[in-house]
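User: structure tokens for this one?
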Amino acid sequence: MKTFDLIVIGSGAGLNVAAGAAEHGLKVAIVEEGPLGGTCLNRGCIPSKMVIQSAEVAENIRRAEEFGLTAKMDKVNLKLVTDRANYAVDADSRSIEKNVRSDKNPLFFKGRGKFAGKYVLEINGEKIKGKKIVIAAGARPSIPPIPGLDKIPYLTSTEALRQTALPKSMIILGGGYIGVELGFFFTALGTKITVVQRNKLLVPREDREVAELITKVWKKKYCVLTNTDAIKVERSGKDVAITVKTGNAVKKITAEKLLVATGVRPNSDTLNLEKTGIKTNKNGFIQVDKFMETNVKNIWALGDIAGIYMFRHSANLEAEYVLNNILNKKKAVDYYPMPHAVFTSPQIAGVGLTEQEAKQQNKKNVIGKEYYKNTAKGIALAEKHGFVKLIVDKKTKEILGCHIIGPEASVLLHEVAVAMKAGKHKALDLLRETVHVHPSLNEVVQRAALAVPL
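Assistant:
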């Protein structure tokens, strides 16, 4: 049996740990069933944002008349749209595998790894042992137990990003991040969508004002059924039919395609963790301490399978700390501040506490809020609804959170994140006092800071 200083399971952010450990002289193995590069590259943030760029162009074309222009979209070549993304990510994945295979450290084992003992993995019948192990095996789409769903074809985000023919209609189960991103993509290109959301709001994890606004905007433009449960799925000719229940009202809706976007589940159930004694929580996520170490010494977990923040940028951050902890430079992960963005329409971004979370934590906070439409650039963009919202500690002036909904929200948020990182109690003054280009969209961030009543 081959023995390694370190075995890494997973080739997303886990590859960062494997490569770094090898550079420091450790004998490393990396185990991956494939394709290499992890969820983000192959079926997540990279291909989705590439195809969503086409949706943003399509949306701009449809809004041309607002800006005194005449334009129309004659045809959508969905194959070209998705091929553009998938050719790029597939090439990157192949390149990563080629590079990993060409190097003897880390040594690549292609296949599904399962624990055969506390520090022993079995891949394709071969067993290897690791003095230390990192589990970065990710997550996969979660499929709800709806009667009939297992008997009809449906899409998850994986298949949705590889469609080559634009469906005329689509039912989307779930109104979270994946649902609203892919919903925007398909509807911008011409698909008629129906969103079935159990919660009363779309993206309910966001600040309530943000979630309320996107729900309001989407209900005006699309068919969005909130507080609604799917209770049965069946065939209706060539279409899919779903019986849904809203309160006491039951009805059947049909569409050409069904997209299931009801969250993800960790891949911990594929690893034979019972052989190791590693603990998971009730949802299957591996439990880790502040150093990302499991309850079993010298076994760490990071990324989606640990379920702390489920972003690629948070997984990359965790990988940095795990590598240092493996090299005996022990330090707890510092997530502050952890931003995120939702690439839908309107775009959403946030960092820190929501107003509701601040209240739950009994924070004495004040709110600074400004609308895009009150800035010169916001007027130029004809933006009617978007805003920036700052949640600030009344006494210390620490920015507790920032939430943005509107054009380029993901870009605008970074100004706040950098200020928060620069100094908890200096961030608000930095935003207020920094000279902003006029007219630039970032002025709406500065004006929200100036609106904080201190």
